Amino acid sequence: MSEKYLLFSFSDVGEAIDFLEYLTRLIPKRYYTGEIKGKKLKIFIKASPDEVDRIIDTIRKGYSEWRLSKTVIKGVYKHSIPMLLKIAKLKIAIPVQGLRDILYLSGYKSEIKGNILYSDAPLDVIKCLAEVLSEKYDESIYLNATPLVKRLVAVIAALTGKSIDYTVKFLLENGLIRYNEYNKLVLRKKYEDALKDLPNILKRSR
């Protein structure tokens, strides 16, 4: 067995604890232990010689992604989408574009490029929104609707805290969706156009 250690610094103890929790989603706990002292986290790795370097690379990559999600560069954070999906406690998998949409409607900048979500929303906010969106998406998938309508319904229901039935009625009344000849819910306009209309629609409904 080989034994090595890594030392990382964080802005506070809470962040170190959160990162240690994140590691449990990357590497089995039998391969490492963590020791927190102040703002520093020391990770002791114990594995076979052929595994230890791979584990170290995985931890370092995880830390790099974590730091990017905690550092503002040109007004935004660079959130790794795979990391976001690992740290959020999701009921079911969510459409990543739906996360972009709910951030936009919440007043945050949000743009997806590759596996990175660029946003001025901090990590804990995105994690919370992803979890709520997952709950609502789990309810919306049973609708007789197109995938984009299900996504839109889940986004608005998560944003407003309303039920799926209420949200469907709301979108119907505001002319964003309709029933087609097969009694299936479809969009009345392009999805992106509907998204652009929603801030004003939501504002009027308050």
What would you say this structure looks like, in words?
There is one protein chain. The chain has 206 residues and is an alpha+beta fold. It has two domains: 2-68, Transcriptional coactivator/pterin dehydratase (Gyrase A, domain 2, 2-Layer Sandwich); 77-205, no CATH class. It is built from eight helices and eight strands, in the order βαββαβααββαααββα. A three-stranded antiparallel beta sheet has the order 1-3-2. Strands 4-6-5 form a three-stranded antiparallel beta sheet. Strands 7-8 form a two-stranded antiparallel ribbon. Strand 2 and strand 3 form a beta hairpin. Helix 4 packs across helix 6 and helix 6 (147-160) packs across helix 7. The protein is elongated, with a radius of gyration of 21 Å. The mean pLDDT is 94.
Condensed summary:
This protein is of the alpha+beta class and 206 residues long.
Structural class: alpha+beta
Tally of structural domains: 2
Biggest sheet, strands in spatial order? 1-3-2
Beta strands, count = 8
List unreliable stretches of 5+ residues. none
Distance between the termini: 62 Å
Largest sheet: 3 strands, antiparallel
N-to-C SSE string, H for helix and E for strand = EHEEHEHHEEHHHEEH
Evaluate the radius of gyration. 21 Å
User: Treating each run of at least 4 consecutive H or I residues as one helix, how many helices?
Assistant: 8
Overall pLDDT level: 94
What are the main properties of this structure?
19% strand, three-stranded antiparallel β-sheet, elongated, 206 residues
